[in-house]
Amino acid sequence: MAEPTADETRQRPAARRREREAGGTRETRIKVSYNDDEHAIVKAAAERERQATASWVGRVSLDVAEEIVVPTPVHAKAVVAELIDARKQLKRIGVNYNQIAKVLNSDGVVTDPEMLAVHRALLTAIRHLDEATLQVMRERKERG
Prior knowledge:
The protein is mainly alpha-helical. The protein has helices at residues 6-10, 36-48, 53-65, 76-105, 112-143. Helix 2 (36-48) packs across helix 3 (53-65) and helix 4 (76-105) packs antiparallel against helix 5.
């Protein structure tokens, strides 16, 4: 049985390559250097999308350059999670305030500790929402 030629051994499965562009062949090469940790991160991201590392880097860099995607720092996920949690908390507090209003409108009694607990929860949720919003604003300012 004959040995495969060099061209045959270098071929990769089609799913791992970037799609061809109408602009012709890609002749220009750019060298990108990473330390071991950075390379591991990039390689893992490429593997998640079942692409060769260089193909993934090429596609992602073009997507960012063409503003198809906007790079978001990893820690932004925590900020978004905090915004989601604050939204949920504010919704719960809104329900509590509506229940209090219903009791008061029907000549019921709401104790001071009940009112104070809802008020404290509201202040805490607003503070968390403000902090997360300011963080998002800072990150947008740094990008812009």
